[in-house]
Amino acid sequence: MIFYGPDGAGKKTRAYAFLARIFGDHVFKLKEEERVLKPENTSTTIEYSIFTSNYHIEMTPSDNEHNDRHIIQNVVKEIASNNNIESKSGRGFKVLIINEADKLTKDAQGGLRRTMEKYIKNCRMILICNNVHNSSVPSDQGASISASPPPNKMKSSKPLRSGQNRVQRFQQLRLHAGNLPEYAKN
């Protein structure tokens, strides 16, 4: 699945809502992990961080520029080797969220395509990007693509104003037993 659109359009929010629909609210219980990878036939090490829940891994491999291919392949192989994953819906796979998928190197995009084909049984992917046309990954993978339109300033400020009004009304009330019915209305 691919979520694309400009910054602030809610791509990641939609991805997490999608995951919560499949796995439940446990997808929001994240922990950050720092990892070190030593690619084969090299003396260098690559440090990167990921966010994990029991059901998914979120990462931004483009932060490591030319090492993004190694990071993606390592994480996907790790996910694929753990095939004991269960969700409330009985699905036996884990989801990998890749942020800034359009900023991956061409080498990483090619590796991602091959990796997606190889490990599709145990690993599903959500790609988040600003421009879907900069990414060659989804072109023939049958990915579901969801556009996130830019936020509308008038529509996005209305809930904020509404929320501010509720907070102001709440702050004006005094907390004692006589006001409890008033609190219940708000």
UniProtKB/TrEMBL annotation:
Biological process according to GO: DNA repair; DNA-templated DNA replication
Alphabetized GO MF terms: DNA clamp loader activity
Mind telling me which CDD domains this protein's record contains? AAA
What are the record's GO terms for cellular component? DNA replication factor C complex; nucleus
The UniProt record lists the keyword 4Fe-4S: no
The record's keywords, sorted A to Z, are:
DNA replication
Renumbered residue ranges of the record's region Disordered? 138-165
UniProt-listed SUPFAM superfamilies: P-loop containing nucleoside triphosphate hydrolases
Q: What is this protein called?
A: ATPase AAA-type core domain-containing protein
**The organism of origin for this protein:** Nymphaea colorata
